[in-house]
Structure formats: structure tokens, C-alpha cells
Amino acid sequence: MPFIDRAILDFLLYDWLDAAALTRLPRFSEHSRETFNAVLDLSTRLADDHFAPHAKRSDQNEPVFDGETVHVLPDIKAALQAYAEAGLFAATFDEALGGAQIPAVIHTASTALTMAANIATAAYPMLTVANARLLATFGLPGQIDTFARPLVEGRWFGTMCLSEPQAGSSLSDVTTRAVSDGADAALGSRYRLFGNKMWISGGDHDMADNIVHLVLAKVPGDDGRIASGMAGISLFVVPKWLPPQTVSLASAMTSL
To answer: What does pTM read for this prediction?
Structure first.
């Protein structure tokens, strides 16, 4: 029994949403219904062969911290390597970034197939693709090359760090501070971050060379105080491991 009925999915995509019409747009002109179906067929095989088999086993074998490293079930890493090799991390991105320029609606259907098979494992690419999308859209060229490209390739993973112990997920109540620490010609303004974050999905593991955290923090005003509410909130790129060319604890991206 398939996790998602393909006939129903095809009806929703092609009869209701008319996804094939997107191929008339310049961005998707090299695609066709056949290439869209190929993405869905590939996603179905990945779901069946790599995501579903360890769904129960990953619930039974939670991540373990040995004092230095967070270890996850090896089957999860194997599934995500297969996902990366299939090009699905990169599917929606520009060709210039190594992407296939697949429409978002097709990629959403692809994601639904892997999530139906194993939502926990499928969450890693979901977070990483969202992280890379924000960087590719708003980041400086140096930030895109340094941080977004490895995410698009599936070599690095990404997270978003909002929640704090005293605030939960209330955006206006975050108190993490971002203090200016100079500038970098390629990566933009540098900041040092002070605060605490919690509940960070995919926050640490042993499955990638690096983890790029997009951290919400407030820049203090001229009086050194952080404002109440959402004033002053920006988003900062904070990698687990600093790439060799970086010298600060964090590189500031575009203010929200």
C-alpha cells in the first residue's frame, strides 16, 4: 500500500492545480509533465527504499550525546545521503546554484511523499532547504557561496533558532543580543551573539560536515538596550564550525 495514492496526487497536481502549465514560464521551460513525474517517481522510490524502513527504528533509537558528539541512527544519514545524491536538496534552486529549477508545487509533492514515509527523517531536508532558500534570496554573494551552496548540495544541514527558555517561541520576547564586531569584506557585518536558544530541531548531530544555524537576535539601540517587541530583530548566520575564511562567531545577514 503506497503512503500517498499516486493517482490522487496526480489529480491534485495536474487536473486541479494545472502544474503542467508552469512549463510555459521561462524559468520552467526546460521541464515537462514527464520531468515532473520523474521527480515524483524518484521521490517514491526514496520514500519506499530509504525513508520508510527505519521509521520505527529511529523512534526506538533516539539520538545519543556521548559528551562530545550527538550520534543519530546511521540509517538516517544513509537516507539523507541518497536524498542528496538524487539532487532533491537542490531541486528548486537556480541552475547557477546547482539546482534543477523544479517548481515549488512539484517539490512540495515530492516532500509529501518522503514525509508520509518518515516525517522525522524528512524534517532534516525540509529545514535545510528552507535555510538555504532564505540565504539564497537575501544573502550577500559571499554568504551564498560560503553557506548556501553546501546546503543546496546536501553536504551541510541547516536549522532556524528562535525559541528561548524564558520566551518559548514568542518572537517578540526573545532576548538574545547581537553585538557588532567589525566587518568582513565578503561576508558582511560581523556580530557576537549572547543568549540561549532551545528546542532547535536538527540542532546537533553527526550526519554532516557542518550545521548552519539561522539565529534570531536583537541588535541593541544606541543606549545599549534591546527594544521590547519585535523591534531590532535580525537574523544571523551562525555555523557550528567556522569555515576557514571566517574569523568571527557570526556573520550578519539581512535585517528582517
So the answer is: 0.90
